[in-house]
Amino acid sequence: MNIQIFGTKKSADTRKAERFFKERNIKYQYVDLKEKGLSKGEFNSVKQAVGGIDNLIDENAKDKDTLALIKYIAEEDKEERILENQQILVQPIVRNGKKATVGYQPDIWKTWD
After folding, report:
1. How far is CA 111 from CA 16, 95, 104, in A?
2. Residue 100 and residue 15: Cα distance in Å, rounded?
3. What is the pLDDT of residue 61?
4. Mean per-residue pLDDT, 8-33
5. What's the mean pLDDT when you consider all of the chain?
6. Residue 101, phi then psi, degrees to nearest 5
7. What is each CA distance from 42 to 49, 56, 63, 83, 97, in whole angstroms?
8. Which helix (H) or strand (E) holds 100?
9. Would you call 21 helix, strand, or coil by DSSP?
């Protein structure tokens, strides 16, 4: 397995995801969304795995201005705006190759081999 966890240290679900993999002695790479974030290729891979851009957006994110903007801008501009403001993504984003989840999804992670 090649696990990547994208999130922030303030996110409780991100910390729970890290604990999930640590307890099972599964190596993972942690990427802090505040420092590095998803590349465009990673974003597109995750977007495809989770069923679209709308499943990636956290409706409860603190940045209400960016959330409102993303709701009303043209579809072709959404991706660029999200890549600039990754704090509005649901956390954690957990990748295993082409597979990906958003949020705390231990039942799905258990099926990964």
Report:
1. 18, 13, 14
2. 17
3. 84
4. 95
5. 91
6. -135, 160
7. 11, 13, 22, 11, 10
8. strand 99-102
9. helix
Q: Amino acid identity of 9?
A: K
Place of tokens 């891979």: 45
Any alpha helices (H) in the chain, and if so which ranges? 12-23, 40-50, 64-72, 75-84, 106-109
Separation of CA 8 from chain center: 10
Helices and strands (DSSP H and E) totals, the chain = 5, 4
53: DSSP letter: G
pLDDT of residue 71: 83
Q: In sequence order, which residues have a C-beta less than 8 Å from that of residue 98 and are 6 or more positions away?
A: 45, 49
The C-alpha angle with vertex 21 and arms to 17 and 24, in degrees rounded to 5, equals 145
Q: What span, in angstroms and rounded, lies between the C-alpha atoms of 70 and 44?
A: 17
What digits encode the pLDDT tens for the residues 31-65?
999 899 899 999 999 999 999 988 999 988 888 88
